[in-house]
DNA sequence: CGTGGTATTGACTTGTGTCAAACTGCGTGG
DNA sequence: CCACGCAGTTTGACACAAGTCAATACCACG
């Protein structure tokens, strides 16, 4: 969609100079911890979440390879969310001054990063509308579609069938439901012929119906990048 | 917190060169409309919302003077949310190329805009957790505190008492509740001595209790801007 | 005065949560 | 290799929070 200049590519590569491995289940950043680092996720799947003081957890977002993590340290001294690994992962840590250098030297990269922020924001607001205004069935349908789409962006081979790699507890924490009720909704979607399941693997058997049930909006379509400044 | 250079101030003033008046109840931008403009809200109170296809509405965010509006046009060809005026407002429209020029010439302003994006994001994720995981009473308490704080940022005279300027229907659309239930929760907060009400005016009579009920986190505290590049 | 939007309250319904029990699959250690 | 335990799933019975519907009251405004 956008062809980077050699200089721009080089600047981004410098951010990814170091590597760190994170085990499945491990925590990369804990809410309220001092946080100076940011990361690029190179491999694996992570999530960010917050814990409320009654002990319940809300999962805010799932992260896949290529995502920038802990961007909120741009603004805050302490982390505002917990980031943990859902599978074995590789991340590339970098410091805020390195980031400042990139956006100073490469205005177009700054603009592109803002575009990514806006996409994230649009996805977040969609989720807000889903949590505030839709039924349990719609929420479960929505998260299934979202996960499939995110995975497909990295592996075009994925079409109707994928392993979601999440427990029903986690699905519940992402959708604002209990694990028990997630289970009931999955069963219902299955009974109504929209999905099939075997051993953690989900197959969409009626994608249209699922999208209708979920109020689905594709936030990675309809982009307009014509306004970007020139590359350096 | 950050002192801008004369050049930076000048660049921002150029964005605010034109003015447009928006009547209470009018719509500045409609969801799915072609959207090339962005705005700075100079005066008044607005909100952005989305309409789901079952007709229900989710209010995503309230905007106050100084906020940048329609920032999602940075990424999208069409608007992803409706922005409408809750009171008579004045906005300053500007085009995306003007924005591109600002971030190209003034890296520190680009960085500051990213910081604001991150604050917005943190606020959004808090709301996500509130909608996903807290009771109706907590949601209503949370929105009252949030509105009071936002208003206080513009008028330090506001402390325990303010006019919220929203119908209970709107409170419901923001919290994911029905207007009827919002009413019941307001009554309950009142009966429990946390707030008092007369004619659209709300007074916090026990702020601590209200904050506890709401799971409140102050997202405008704990900022760290030491990493910003130098001003130009 | 009406009239339309908003607020308030009550009676009833429904969606989702809670609790508990059984079941499954899998890794671990004896 | 088996037995055990643990984490996750599935299902049922029941409780409760929030939604729905409807009637009334309260304004502000033409």
UniProtKB/TrEMBL annotation, chains A, B:
Residues 134-208 form the HTH crp-type domain. Keywords: DNA-binding, Transcription, Transcription regulation. This is Crp/Fnr family transcriptional regulator. It comes from the Bacteria. Gene3D superfamilies: Jelly Rolls, Winged helix-like DNA-binding domain superfamily/Winged helix DNA-binding domain.
């Amino acid at each position: 969609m956008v062809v980077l200049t050699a200089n721009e590519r080089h600047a981004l590569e410098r951010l990814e100079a170091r590597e760190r491995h994170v085990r499945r289940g491990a925590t990369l950043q804990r809410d309220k911890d001092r946080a100076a680092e940011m990361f690029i996720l190179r491999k694996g799947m992570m999530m960010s979440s917050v814990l409320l003081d009654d002990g319940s957890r809300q999962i805010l977002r799932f992260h896949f390879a290529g995502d920038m993590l802990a961007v909120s340290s741009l603004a805050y001294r302490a982390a505002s969310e917990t980031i943990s690994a859902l599978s074995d992962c590789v991340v590339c840590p970098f410091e805020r001054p390195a980031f400042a250098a990139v956006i100073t030297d490469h205005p177009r990269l700054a603009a592109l990063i803002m575009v990514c922020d806006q996409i994230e924001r649009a996805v977040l607001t969609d989720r807000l509308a889903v949590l505030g205004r839709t039924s349990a069935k719609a929420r479960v349908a929505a998260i299934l579609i979202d996960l499939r789409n995110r995975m497909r962006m990295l592996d075009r081979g994925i079409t109707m069938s994928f392993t979601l790699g999440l427990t029903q507890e986690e699905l519940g924490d992402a959708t604002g439901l209990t694990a028990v009720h997630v289970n009931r909704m999955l069963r219902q979607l299955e009974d109504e012929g929209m999905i099939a399941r075997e051993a953690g693997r989900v197959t969409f058997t009626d994608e249209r119906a699922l999208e209708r049930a979920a109020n689905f909006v594709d936030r990675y379509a309809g982009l307009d990048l014509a306004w970007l400044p020139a590359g350096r």
